[in-house]
Amino acid sequence: MSRFGGRVHEYPAVSIDRFDHDNLLARAYFLSHCHKDHMKGLRAPALRRRVESSLKVKLYCSPVTKELLLTNWKYKFWENHIVALEVETPTQISLVDETTGEKEDVEVTLLPAGHCPGSVMFLFEGENGTVLYTGDFRLAKGEAARMELLHSGTRVKDIQSVYLDTTFCDPKFYHIPSREECLKGILELVRSWISLTRNHVVWLNCKAAYGYEYLFINLSEELGVKVHMNKLDMFRNMPEILYHITTDQHTQIHACRNPRDDDCFRWNRLPCGMTCQNGTPVHLIVIKPSTMWFGERIKKTNVIVRTGESTYRACFSFHSSYSEIKDFLSYIQPVNVYPNVPPVGGTEEKVMQLLKPLCRSYRRNPEPRYKPLGTLKRACKRDLSDTDEDDLFDSELTAARPKISKQQREESRPSSPARSENTGGNNDESTESYRTTATYTSLKEPDATSTSNFSGVTSNQQESSSDVPRWDTFFKCDRLEETSDIEDNFPSSADAGGSQSLFSDSDGVSDSTHISSQNSSQSTHISEQGSQGWDSQMDTVLITTQERNALDMSRGGSRTVAVSQDTTKYTPLDNSLCKPLSQNRSCVHVACDLKSKDTEKDADASTTCVGDGVVEGSDNSRTTDLEPRRDSQSSSDFEIPLTPDAEVPQPEKLRCLYKKLAAGENIVCEKRVS
DNA sequence: GCGATCAGGT
DNA sequence: CACACCTGATCGC
User: Fold this and answer.
1) CA A660 → CA A349, A445, A553, A639, A665, distances in Å?
2) CB neighbours of A140 closer than 8 A, spacing ≥ 6?
3) N or C terminus of chain A: which is more exposed, having fewer CB within 10 Å?
4) C1' of B2 to CA of A269 (Å)
5) Would you say A363 and A188 are in contact if contact means Cβ atoms under 8 Å apart?
6) Which nucleotides of strand C are protein-proximal, with an atom < 7 A from a CB?
7) Could you read off the pLDDT of A311-362 as tens digits, one per residue?
8) A378-391 tens-digit pLDDT
């Protein structure tokens, strides 16, 4: 819930995402996306009167946001006052005071925010400095570095203030599985269910909000089954979405809604009322997209959790995780940062403590100011072999959308029919931010896996350790994520087994069973850490009794029936989102639903291993699975020894290391092999 | 009757 | 957990 008041200090003449109270007097309005909590006052009588009696009052937003907004008749009065700005197209705007005639010019640029269709961030540039308002955003690690318009030449712009989506700005939300991971998990679950029979139907229990469209599009494209929705009119000018959704109930994937949803699936009834196809009752499972998060040291991420006989939760987040926020902010390195959202459990002060260290102004004595070292990361083709399964775990590699020119994008289109991208009319950008590619950019910054800049390090600690060279004294850099990634990339048991765990059972579900599938090296993996009850690590997707019956697979005492589905059968239509998927020879193991005490035990074990308090400063030693985690903020400047026995670098060594890095020499970092 | 706000629900 | 809503009750105009 956005608590942003609508004004930025530098340009108080504009109101953004708030339209009530004193925002009524703004010279111009900006709407970052079409979610109600960012539209407060937008159709209030007072503002409506002003709009209707003025020719000058304008609302600036993306073309898709304009389209979605005007679908609702309650906002029709804005129609002649909305200016749709193309994304990534700097536009000069004159802010004129209607009463005094005072004028102020500001250049505004819309940047894709990856939150929902049409969602953007606003970059304001003018006399009072450069200001970035993020609205709500979900950007994968490294995406800021690929946004050309955040750069001037090859360097990141000098940004005075960032008004930041801090929804998940808390270390306990350290990691949220990437869009691609989540999509893949949902895709495989839906696929495994609806391919059983024509009567196997999935209901996606989505909220009444924009943001799930790319999920629908991808499911439809991969499975050839359109998604049922209550209404489609808001997408009437977005053929790329429209094509994949339908009002025809006779489809196997539903995202329809009904006020009395809960009664609906009580027994095989969909919100739209459908109960059977061709006279045969449907077999229904419910997938509820929810945010799942993991602490810093999670090694594997299950994105599907079974919560009941035929109910599942699937990881889905509209907002950036803590590590993504940190990556974003530490790349931008503004002078100031202001949270748009007070953190869930915490206070604004607490969030500021986390964010301030990522800002330039954090330095007490304003040293000669080094501009952020971050340089625009150009696209760099990477040879992705089919065996490179790590990619799936590394959001930086798979989720990163290299900044490529519009022309390049156009060129790539013929061979890549748009999937999660709207190409209809002027709404090209609507889901553009969801596009990912299999390319990644070379890291021009030294890959300082031996250093990190912890946001949890206090000012005092930093000042006092003056004899220890600190990377961030000279360079903008936040390597915690990278190192964490490396950790994440260590081949896990699942990797060794040649398949990835996408699913897990929720503990506390008594009648579901985990059956360790796959090969002998692939034993049950218990999360060493998670923050929720549902992240016990299972390598098997469990399908219900219903399904077993449907499959007629009851085979006496046979505990496991594995139905392998080769995901390499995907025929990606482009090399963006699908590529990572098609590379992974992931198997979905469908196990019969048998009771097992072991499962509950496993789940219990998992929860006892949960470390809720993810700390900023982390331990120097690598914890192994099931080893109690040692949370420590000591020696927090030095994260990530590459081996369990690695030591904290000594100052001399560190200085030497910095020198090398500063000189542009490569520091070789090897991934642990076993 | 409408809107704003709050509580409670998913 | 929390999101982004929705509904319903209450209050003020």
Assistant:
1) 37, 12, 61, 18, 5
2) A114, A178, A179, A324, A395, A396, A399, A400, A401, A436
3) C
4) 36
5) no
6) 1-7
7) 999 999 999 999 999 999 999 999 999 999 876 666 788 899 999 999 996 6
8) 764 444 333 333 33
